[in-house]
């Protein structure tokens, strides 16, 4: 009898447990992503990023229309008391921007549920945030909007912009796009603006004109100390400045780089003027780190560069053109290229490089005039030439 009672109790417990398992809700996967606002409306996503210990924070936000197209974005460094403070300040900046530019029908989303509740209720128990919450409440009442909560995964762009402003070493102060553009354009603008601001940073990276290249550089000069001469070179490209280019018969050049204009240092640009005498040749060469844009002002040039075939590394494709006055040609970075004056008249050329101090690797000189020299036996086998020819080439290019 006792065993029967024990068995009944165990059975009842087991059945109760099985019933509880059947009543438990089945877990469901939630797909989290940013969603478009209703037709004709806009959505503002904001976020804040706070670095504990130093009070540095970043405010980020992005506004998009009902097609998901960018209206504006911002990434601003700020001083805050907490992450919640940064979240609220980011929302305030975004709302102010909308009001300033006439946007009233928009939704605002934050990924901090705590701050969303503060803004909805219009109050907080944190006395340090009372002023900021009151300001945000007044702004939202002007356009009758209610903040909504979203998951962090749906707020990744704003999160990225906030972290960018809080962690960048160049202390990025302000980035704002007010033009309607694509998300790709926004990213490009962000990168370009960040590079520009990091190179400025309250001053200029100026090259000492009297110092040897890359030696004894004045890396930084305060913006209050610069003058017009730091950004100027008198008659730098005039014909009187042209000098024979070493090892190039019939080629004369004048170059404007960081040695000529101190402010060019780290900006990433060099300009040169060339006079190419009739039938003058610039041997095959490359610029390992830079691209080149060439413009013909007078005369004619035959130019070209080589592109390796992906299917046959033993062969290359020649991309060439005869250029006349007014024509422009671009040589991609690192590609072997050449120039040759066509006709019986000289050619005047302007070159632009995307580097402050461009370097050239001349193919024949690099091979036959290296220091120390490449082994003659190797060169003879590599080029399928007699060693006497290799020796003769060394004499011509050394």
Write the layout of secondary structure elements.
Layout: H1 2-23, E1 42-50, E2 56-65, E3 70-79, H2 83-100, E4 106-110, H3 113-121, H4 130-143, E5 148-149, H5 156-167, E6 176-177, H6 183-200, E7 203-204, E8 221-222, E9 243-244, E10 251-256, E11 270-276, E12 281-286, E13 292-298, E14 300-308, E15 316-323, E16 328-331, E17 337-342, E18 347-353, E19 361-362, H7 363-368, H8 376-383, H9 387-397
Parallel strand pairs: 1-4, 4-5
Antiparallel strand pairs: 1-2, 2-3, 3-6, 7-8, 9-10, 10-11, 11-18, 12-17, 12-19, 13-16, 13-18, 14-15, 14-17
Q: What key attributes describe this structure?
A:
elongated; Nucleotidyltransferase, domain 5; single chain; Jelly Rolls; 398 residues; 19 strands; six-stranded antiparallel sheet; six-stranded mixed sheet; alpha+beta
Q: Please write the string of helix (H) and strand (E) elements.
A: HEEEHEHHEHEHEEEEEEEEEEEEEHHH
Shape: elongated
Largest beta-sheet details: 6 strands, mixed
- Cα distance spanning the termini: 112 Å
Number of DSSP helices? Answer: 9
CATH superfamily of the largest domain: Ribonuclease H-like superfamily/Ribonuclease H
The CATH topology of the largest domain turns out to be: Nucleotidyltransferase, domain 5
Overall mean pLDDT: 78
- Over all CA atoms, what is the radius of gyration? 33 Å
- CATH architecture verdict of the largest domain: 2-Layer Sandwich
């Amino acid at each position: 009898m006792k065993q029967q009672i024990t068995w009944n109790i165990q059975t009842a417990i087991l059945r109760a447990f099985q019933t509880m398992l059947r009543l438990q809700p089945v877990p469901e996967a939630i797909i989290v992503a940013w969603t478009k606002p209703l037709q004709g409306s806009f959505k503002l996503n904001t976020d804040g990023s706070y670095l504990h210990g130093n009070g540095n924070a970043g405010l980020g936000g992005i506004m998009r229309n009902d097609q998901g197209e960018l209206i504006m974005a911002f990434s601003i460094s700020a001083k805050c008391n907490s992450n919640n403070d940064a979240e609220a300040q980011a929302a305030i900046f975004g709302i102010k921007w909308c009001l300033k530019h006439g946007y009233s029908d928009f939704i605002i989303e934050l990924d901090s549920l705590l701050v969303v509740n503060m803004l909805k209720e219009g109050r907080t128990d944190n006395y340090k945030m009372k002023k900021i919450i009151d300001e945000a409440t007044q702004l939202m009442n002007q356009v009758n909007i209610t903040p909504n909560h979203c998951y962090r995964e749906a707020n990744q762009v704003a999160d990225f912009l906030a972290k960018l402003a809080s962690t960048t070493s160049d202390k990025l102060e302000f980035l704002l796009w007010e033009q309607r553009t694509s998300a790709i354009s926004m990213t490009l603008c962000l990168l370009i603006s960040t590079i520009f601001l990091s190179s400025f940073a309250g001053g200029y990276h100026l090259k000492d004109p009297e110092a040897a290249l890359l030696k004894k550089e004045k890396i930084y000069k305060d913006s209050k100390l610069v003058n017009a001469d730091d950004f100027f070179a008198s008659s730098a490209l005039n014909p009187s400045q042209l000098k024979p280019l070493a090892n190039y018969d019939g080629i004369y050049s004048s170059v404007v780089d960081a040695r000529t204009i101190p402010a060019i240092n780290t900006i990433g640009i060099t300009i040169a003027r060339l006079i190419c005498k009739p039938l003058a040749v610039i041997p095959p060469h490359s610029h390992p780190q830079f691209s080149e844009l060439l413009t013909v002002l007078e005369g004619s040039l035959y130019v070209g560069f080589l592109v390796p075939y992906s299917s046959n590394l033993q062969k290359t494709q020649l991309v060439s053109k005869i250029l006349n006055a007014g024509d422009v040609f671009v040589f991609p970075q690192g590609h072997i290229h050449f120039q040759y004056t066509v006709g019986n008249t000289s050619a005047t050329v302007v070159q632009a490089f995307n580097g402050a101090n461009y370097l050239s690797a001349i193919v024949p000189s690099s091979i036959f005039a290296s220091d120390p020299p490449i082994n003659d036996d190797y060169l003879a086998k590599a080029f399928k030439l007699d060693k006497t020819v290799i020796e003769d080439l060394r004499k011509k290019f050394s």
